[in-house]
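Exercise 7. Predict the joint structure of the components listed below.
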Amino acid sequence: MNIWPQGYYVLAGVGAALALASLIGFILHLRAANAAVENLNARIKAWWLMVALLGGTFLLGRNAVIALFALVSFAALREFITLTPTRRADRTALITSFFVALPGQYYLIWVGWYGFFAILIPVYAFLALPILAALRADAKDFVARTSETQWGLMISVYCVSHVPALLTLRIPGYEDREALLIVFLLVVVQSSDVLQFVFGKLLGRHKVAPALSPSKTWEGFLGGVACATAVGSSLWRLTPFSPVQAAAMALMITCIGFLGGLVMSAIKRDRGVKDWGHLIEGHGGVLDRLDSVCFSAPIFFHLTRYFFVP
Amino acid sequence: MFEPLVEALITGSVRMLTGVRARWQGSGPADTQRIYYSNHTSHVDFVLLWSALPPRLRARTRPVAAGDYWTQTTIRRYVIHRVFRGVLVDRGLMDRTPNPISPMLEALDRGESLILFPEGTRGAGPGLLPFKAGVFHVAQERPSVELVPVWMDNSYRVMPKGAILPLPLLCSVTFGRPTRLAIDEDQTAFLARLRQSLLELGAE
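Solution:
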C-alpha cells in the first residue's frame, strides 16, 4: 500500500476537525454539563480512538486492514444475532456463519478472488444456511428464522467486507493506492453522519420518519449531505475520480448511507432497543457506527469497479 | 507455571465470544468478602462472572464447583484446581453428610470470596430452578459474609446444556444489592428471598 503522504494530510485534517470538536465540547462542558453534552464528549473521545485505530492499522498495511474489518464484521454479526430471537435448531447455521462464512469471505478478499467473494454469501451461504437449519428438523417460524440469519450475515459480513474489498480493484494509473478509496469512503460516510447529527441538533425541525428514528431530520439530512458531498469532492486527489466524479460518488454514498441508517433504525425500533450494543462509548454498538457504511460500501465498490476497472 | 497463560486464554476467548459487560447495580466492585450467587445456564457462566470482576478481586475469588463433574478428566481437574482454584463440593453428599459445606467455610475463613450457583445444576433457559440448601447453611455458619446476587444474561444462548461449540453473543453480568441472613430467618424464607432478588435483578 502506497498511501502516504496523502494519508497524512487526511489524518491531519481529521485530527484538526476532532481538535476543534474537542474544544467545543470542552467549552460546552464548562458552560452547561448535562447528559447531552457528556454524550457529545464521549462520542468525540471515541472518535479519537477510532481514528487512531484506523490510522495505526493503515500504517501496518494491507493484511492488517483486512484483519481489522474481519473483526469488525465479527462484532457486528454478534450484535445482530444477539438481538435476533433464535432457536436451538439455528445453532449449526449460526456457528457456520461465524466460523466458516465470515473467515471464508475475508480469506477470499485477502487472495483477491472477486468471482468467489461476490457470491460466497449470496449464493453458497444463502443455500447452505437453510439446509443446516432444516437438518435440525424444527419447523417453527422457519422462513423468518432463516431470513434473519441470512440478513445478519449479508449486512454484517458481506456488506462490511466491501470496504476492504476495495483493495482488490485494479485501476490503471492508480496501482498500489487502492487503500485511499477506503479512506475516501470512510471520511465521506462518517463526515456525513457527523454533519447530519450537527445540522440536526442545530436546525432540525422536520422529522423524516418519527416512527423509526427521533434524530433524523430533513434539515440534518440536507445539511449533512451537502457538506459531506463538498468534503468528498475536495478529496478528489485521493481518488482516480475527477472533482465532479468525486462529488457524484460522495453524493451517492451519503444518500445511500442515510437511507441505510433508516433501515437499521427500523430494525432497532422493532426489537425495542435504542442501540445495537455498547462497544463504542457514546455511540452504541459497532452497527450504530457502521449502519451507513454497510449500505454504501457495496454500491461504492461496484460503481467504482464498473466505471474505473477496465 | 502455565496457569496464568491458560487463564488468560480461557477468559480471553470468553470475552471475545461474549464481549462481557459488567453492570454494578446496588453494589460496587468492593474488597468486601462476598458470596456472589448467580443463575446457572451454561459452561461459560463462572468464567463470565470471573472476567467481569476487576483483576484484584479475581485473585481473591474462588468458584464453587461440582466435584463429581470437575474431577472426571485430567483436563477438567487441571483447570478447576490449578487455573481457577475452585472449591469443590460433592453434590451427592450435599443433603446427607453432616458438613458437606466445610470446603466453602474453609475458603471463607481464609478471607476469600466465593462464586456460587445455588441452583446446583445448569438450568435450561432464562428462568431459575429452586435453590439448594447449601447457601443457607453457609450463611448460617458465617453470617457476616455479604451475599451479592449476580444475574447472567444470554449465556444460555452462548452455550446451552449439551452444546459442543459456543455461539458468539453479547452477554452482560449484573451485580445487585448485597444482603445477609436476617436474625431468626428460616431456610425456606431465606432461600425464597435470595431467589426473588435474583429474579428481580434479571427482570430489570
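Discussion. The first strand of chain B starts at residue 21 and ends at 24.
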